[in-house]
Amino acid sequence: MNQRVNWVWIIFLFLSGGSESFGADQMNDWIKAFNKSHPVETAKMRNGVNRGEEIKVSDFSPEYKELLYKLYQGYASKIIDSKSLDSGVTKNTPQFEFFKKALGKLEYREDDVDSTSDRVRTHLTHLEEKKYRLRWRLFLNYMSWQSQAALVGPFETTNLLTTNLGLCPGFGMSLENRFWALSLDLSGLYGSGGVSAVQGLVEYQQSQVPALGGRFAIGGGRIVSASGSEVGLRGSLLFVRQNLTKPSDNQYNVTQDKILSYTVSVFSRWRFNRFYLETDFGRTIARPSTLWSIGLGTIF
Amino acid sequence: MIRRILALALLVAPTMASAYPQFIGHGYPSCMNCHYNPMGNGPLTDYGRAVGADGIASGALYPKSWSEEKIADLSGFLFRTPVQKHFRVQANYRGMEMVSSVGTPSERWSWINMQAGGQLILKFLENDRLTFVGEIGYNPSSNSAKATGQDKRKLRTREHYVGYRIKPEVGIYAGLMDKAYGIRVAEHIAFSRILPELTQNDQTHGVMIHGLFDGWEGALHGFVGNLLQPKDLRQVGASAQVERQIFTDHRLGMSVLSSKNDYVKMLSYSLHTRLSLSEGSALLLEAGQTERISLGTRGDRIGRYALLQTYTRPIRGLYCLTNIEYMKSDLSSAATTVRWGPGIQYFPVQKLELRTDLYQTRTFNPNASTQDGWTILFQTNVWL
Fold first, then answer.
1. Are residues A24 and A170 in the same domain?
2. Residue B114 and which of A27, A298, B78, B377 are 20 to 30 A apart at CA?
3. pTM recorded for the entire structure
4. What proportion of chain B, given as a percentage, has pLDDT over 70?
5. Which residue of B has its CA nearest to A290?
6. Could you list the residue range(s) of the whole structural domain that residue A206 is in?
7. Signed CA dihedral, B196, B198, B203, B208: sign only
8. Closest Cβ opposite residue A161 in set B275, B342, B369
9. Same domain, A148 and A255
């Protein structure tokens, strides 16, 4: 008679929970059965899992083992259905681990248990990777950019070109997960450049003209490797003050680019633990000018 | 001078070698994994071709039902699995649309057939310890040669050698090969290849000993110049390159090269590193100096260069790269050149590489500010 009841239980459990998805009512029924219908077995199992006491596999009935397996699958299903690392995952993970250990002690359906465990671990890793974190950065970039000017004379205008090099110390913040990053960077700029005429008959040449300014950048990138290599696009607002000397001849005047310019650039970042190397290559909007930079930074 | 070197480099014969040291980012620190030549370049081994098919090229265009094994099985010559082990034939074509002086009145578009060649490999003994490798291909004429009617030789061999691995760790190679020096990047127009004269036609006849021991890899190369060249032009000398594996996946190395012909004596030395940043991401860095002592009337010159090549792989088959190069071709001159080259390299299927490079060249000279130079390259590389 008892044997027949056991088989009825097993058939019921198979029929009631054969799929990967489990309803709340089913889970409640199983939890109730786990706590109330098998008090002795459950107590032994709790001691076995929580206190590390030895258990005898023969002390546990087949329907009880199947019940544990269904509960294990039920908690696995709840975790796998979670879209983020919310309290649901936090709440269900200890139960999942309990039933995994219990089934391990019973050596019951080991391949299925391992396979489900792998799926849960993969899903938890994925959720962990999807979680956005805020990171702060300090960096020092070496930047080069060109700017235009014009020497306006009484009869003709001569185009001037300045080629600059400068250092940009700054800080930034990134909101990032394993796949994507959104970053804001703010840096100062100190550099200098040489200017000369690129077209026209009038000669004009200056070297080491100081440049002072700053850069504000916002960018989005794709993180393409586990080490954190990132490639992305960035928009920048560049502020540069660089005063070219007026010629002593009062008939000539120097007109310069506006001190504010906008650039769009492609950047890449390679991480070495807390440090990173960054390159940036971009074009100034509405002006024929290219900007590039290379730098080192630290993440904290 | 700098502009002349750049113009020559870009216009004469922009053939590219097929060496991809950045694949350290896929866990291949040694070129020997995939090439018959242990220092890289030239024909691929069966394993290298399979890696190209399975690990490098995109799998997106294959039917979903195809396994990686099936794709790898197609990596042999003409998509066939080799039925014998001693004889291999390979063929490749590389062509390029080059847009020079972009955005200027002298902008020019031109298609260049860079390379169309065949390779023959004979291999014997256990683990292919004895190999014979030969390559012959189309030799594009330089613009200056076309203009003067010289350089009528349309076929050229850039590699033919015999190699014997005395034991797995040590091999000896004799014949025409590239000199063992620095990072053998694919871009022969890289400053790190131009200054030490290691470009597309600078192979030399010689004997090279290659060793691979417990985290160390290196080669010692003695050479007598390219025997197909006039004797007075042949650079005779020796070079050495050694790399040390550091922090499991990375390499740190140094090189030295000394040679002379009737007109010039050269000494080059460099330090380099190749860093693997997992899943195809890699950084290559090389810095070096070349001393060029004239044995004739022209003056001596010391030049300095640096190369930073960066790679990321957003998806399988696609690589975003940046070439950042520095050159001061003559330390006594005030001018320095920085070339910045973002690019995209795409392997849509095995045996096909598509690549686009943008090169921006900026000259820093305290006495004159000049407009940037721009060049765009669209390359196609097919191998069978």
1. no
2. B78
3. 0.82
4. 92
5. B372
6. 133-299
7. positive
8. B369
9. yes
